[in-house]
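TICKET: design request
STATUS: open
ATTACHED STRUCTURE:
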């Protein structure tokens, strides 16, 4: 199996400097790329993920490396981090990691709706068992003002107005049932207008839908608010974001609490090796309150 390649791994390890007897909470476990390195250094790790498929992959991977002794999997969305920590850990932790990116199986997997080529779904829920709203429902039932608001507010899509018009025109002909069809609608508009594009033209539309379906901005604010409550005095916190909206929320939190922080970007070598890392921003800070 091809595992998701964790971004800024060496930088995260350098910041946390994990040691035996230390306790870390990986609030976005994914395929456990970061957590495995914590475990290899002898630390105790609690790994949280909202996606059951990710959690199974991570557990199997950790077991195959015989690192399960100091690992505890946790199920749930990190917006509930304080309650989960209170019930399952109940001691101040040494470090909290939040990686806000999607894992490779989410990005490219069929029947999830995240991939531009997915012809089976326009779902985008991290956990269909606990979430009801889907991207398909948004695209097919929300009015033009609602669509414009999320495209422009969450993803800063400059062509939000004409793209909303194209989407509504298309859905009047037939329902938009999968990600491939939605991406084609957007791409066709770019081609009709002879607009050039460096990345897929539907990138920001998909981003806005994902943020809306999974309440990503609100959930990020919740885990940031809890971060200083669950970490030790001088406990370390690292947030990896992938677009300006997320990074803005992190910066505002750091500024509000007057925390000393550092911004770290991926090296040129990492971007060449792992292209999805190109938009990653790592902000690290300590709990000094």
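STATUS: resolved
RESOLUTION: sequence designed for all positions
ATTACHED SEQUENCE:
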């Amino acid at each position: 199996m091809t595992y998701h390649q964790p971004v800024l791994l060496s930088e995260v390890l350098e910041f946390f400097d994990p040691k035996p007897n230390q306790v870390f909470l990986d609030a976005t476990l994914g395929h456990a790329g970061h957590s495995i390195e914590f475990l290899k250094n002898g630390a105790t790790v609690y790994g949280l993920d909202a996606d059951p498929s990710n959690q199974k992959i991570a557990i199997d991977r950790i077991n195959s490396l015989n690192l399960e002794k100091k690992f505890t999997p946790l199920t749930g969305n990190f917006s509930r981090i304080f309650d989960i920590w209170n019930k399952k850990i109940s001691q101040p932790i040494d470090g909290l990691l939040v990686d806000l990116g999607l894992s490779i199986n989410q990005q490219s997997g069929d029947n999830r709706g995240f991939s531009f080529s997915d012809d089976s779904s326009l779902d985008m829920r991290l956990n269909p068992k606990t979430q009801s709203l889907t991207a398909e429902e948004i695209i097919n039932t929300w009015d033009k003002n609602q669509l414009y608001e999320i495209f422009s507010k969450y993803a800063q899509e400059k062509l939000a107005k004409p793209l909303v018009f194209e989407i509504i025109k298309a859905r009047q002909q037939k329902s938009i049932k999968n990600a491939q069809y939605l991406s084609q609608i957007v791409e066709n508009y770019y081609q009709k207008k002879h607009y050039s594009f460096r990345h897929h033209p539907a990138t920001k539309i998909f981003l806005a839908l994902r943020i809306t379906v999974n309440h990503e901005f609100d959930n990020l604010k919740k885990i940031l608010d809890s971060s200083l409550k669950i970490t030790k005095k001088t406990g370390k916190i690292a947030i990896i974001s992938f677009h300006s909206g997320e990074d803005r929320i992190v910066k505002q939190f750091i500024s509000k609490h007057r925390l000393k922080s550092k911004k770290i970007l991926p090296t040129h070598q990492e971007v060449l090796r792992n292209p999805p890392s190109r938009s990653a921003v790592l902000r690290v800070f300590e709990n000094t309150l």
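CLOSING REMARK: The domain at 132-213 is CATH 1.10.150.170 (DNA polymerase; domain 1). Residues 30 and 102 are 8 Å apart (CA to CA).
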